[in-house]
Amino acid sequence: MMTLFDDEQVLEAYAKDIDDNATHREARETAERMIKMGKFSLEDIALCVPSIPLDELKRLKVDIMQLA
Predict the structure, then answer these.
(1) Is the separation of the CB atoms in 36 and 64 below 8 Å?
(2) Which is higher by pLDDT, 1 or 26?
(3) CA gyration radius for the chain?
(4) Cβ(39)–Cβ(20) under 8 Å?
(5) Residues 31, 57 contacting (CB under 8 angstroms)
(6) Are the C-beta atoms of 28 and 52 separated by less than 8 Å?
(7) Which residues contact 52 (CB under 8 A, 6 or more apart)?
């Protein structure tokens, strides 16, 4: 019985991790689009996409500008 309970916890944690990663990926894609539009400051983007820290937005902008 204990093994079954542990397996259920592991599966729940795995499913939550997948959801968290998908949510972060979607937030990052939104931030990328906003940066590419060039109409928003990083501070504005951070307000609209609060799950992405400002430091990460700065790195993302540098990466995007290098590709342009």
Answers:
(1) yes
(2) 26
(3) 17
(4) no
(5) yes
(6) yes
(7) 24, 27, 28, 31, 45, 46, 60
